[in-house]
Amino acid sequence: MTIKDTISTTAVVGSGYMGGGIAQVLALHGYKVMLGDVDGETAERARVRLVEQAKDFEAHGLLPEGASKIIDANLAAAPSIEEAVAAADYIAEAVPEEPELKANILRRVSAAAPPHAIIGTNTSAIPIRELAPSVTGPERFLGVHWMNPAPFIPGVELIPGQETNPEVLDRAEQLIRSLGKTPARVADTPGFVANRLQFALYKEAAQIVDEGTATPEQIDAVVSNTFGFRLALFGPFAIGDMAGLDVYESAYRTLEKAYGERFAAPEALVAMVKDGNLGLKSGHGFLDVDPGNKTALLAYRDNAYARLSQLRTDLGQAPAL
Ligand SMILES: NC(=O)c1ccc[n+]([C@@H]2O[C@H](COP(=O)([O-])OP(=O)(O)OC[C@H]3O[C@@H](n4cnc5c(N)ncnc54)[C@H](O)[C@@H]3O)[C@@H](O)[C@H]2O)c1
User: Fold this and answer.
1) What's the 46 CA to ligand 1 centre distance in angstroms?
2) pLDDT (tens digit, 9 = 90+) per residue, 5-57?
3) What pTM does this model have?
4) What angle do helix axes 267-274 and 245-259 make, rounded to 10 degrees?
5) Rounded distance between C-alpha atoms, residue 166 and residue 170, angstroms
6) What is the structure's pLDDT at 290?
7) Does CATH place domain 226-315 in 3.40.50.1100?
8) For residues 156 and 150, is the Cβ–Cβ distance under 8 A?
9) How many Cβ atoms sit within 10 Å of the Cβ of residue 205?
10) Least confident range of 60-69, 154-163, 196-205, 280-289
């Protein structure tokens, strides 16, 4: 049995920036999508915009040939959010990030949806446990957090709440995979993983600007050309293991002297170094890389960085930046 045997009709409630992109991806992969918004006209305007945008994506080769026709055929606008969800097997909630508004919409959506419908909220940072009390049947509710722009970013965080049925989580994961996306299950904490990290970086960057150390333009150039470039391919732990954890520990000592406790080396890192686990060069680090695969990993890295560098040259500087 595939996920399409249990999910064929979907609804997207809040057909703005994120909801619109999610709707395009669902429709492109053969799911029927009903758009729900503040009223039927707004939903219809969104439908027209999304089909036009899909045509543009297709014309630029960003979506396969025929994609906009499929999206057009599978996308419909509903007069109300109740009508949008009435026959849905899966519902994506993507109204603005205001806890009261989301609670109210989730109350309405879960009252009007069939009992079997899975409801995934696209909240950026609100814990699922804070939204779940508004959902009738919270066992079918979870966080399904897409990134912007939804048609092109591969990763989607899946966040079960305290009451989410594990089978619902499994099915949401199958759905996301059926859309060609890469799901990551993460725990229900504010900001989850992606935004907690992203916002920590943003805050430090703003502080560097406040101190007069660098301008926003300089910081963006440094990030996108140095460690941000690496982050397109590897996460912080793989990068740390490749750099050497002893190197990280020494750098933290210098940073702690300058910026205090918040830059003290993480305890787990100190323990690793103490035990002689320095990452790739000693065989063990935060990730367990089989020493037999070390050469292949480094060759992959070098090839990937060289090709990414070429891609950036081919693309040229982003306009207006
Ligand atoms: N913008 C991003 O980069 C981004 C990325 C990931 C997650 N998110 C999250 O996605 C959600 C939506 O964000 P967005 O940027 O797409 O917002 P948006 O403002 O572009 O879209 C929100 C949509 O909800 C509709 N809406 C507002 N009130 C409504 C109501 N009472 N009933 C029905 N529809 C209503 C609006 O008309 C609009 O179409 C938020 O939770 C946000 O945190 C946003």
Assistant:
1) 12
2) 899 999 999 999 999 999 999 999 999 999 999 999 999 999 999 999 999 99
3) 0.96
4) 140
5) 6
6) 87
7) no
8) no
9) 16
10) 280-289
Number of neighbouring beta carbons within 10 Å of residue 168 = 20
Q: Render pLDDT for 92-118 as a digit per residue (tens, 0 to 9).
A: 999 999 999 999 999 999 999 999 999
Give the distance from CA 298 to its chain's centroid.
Answer: 27
What does the mean pLDDT of the chain come to? 97
Q: What does the block give as tokens for 104? A: 């109210």
Pocket of ligand 1 (CB under 6 A): 13-19, 37-38, 42, 81, 94-97, 105, 122-124, 146-148
Using most ligand atoms within 8 A of CB, pick from 124, 128, 131 the residue to mutate for ligand 1: 124
* 3-state percent breakdown (helix, strand, coil) of the chain, nearest 5: 55, 10, 35
Distance CA 208, CA 25 (A): 38
> What value does the mean pLDDT take over residues 208-235?
97
Q: What is the 3-state secondary structure (H, E, C) of 207-276?
A: HHHHHCCCCHHHHHHHHHHCHHHHHCCCCHHHHHHHHCHHHHHHHHHHHHHHHCHHHCCCHHHHHHHHCC
- Which helix (H) or strand (E) is 160 found in, with range? strand 155-160
Residue type at 178 in one-letter notation: S
Which fold, 3-185? Rossmann fold (3.40.50)
According to CATH, where is 3.40.50.720 located in the chain? 3-185
- What confidence score (pLDDT) does residue 320 get? 83
C-alpha 92 – ligand 1 centre gap (Å): 11
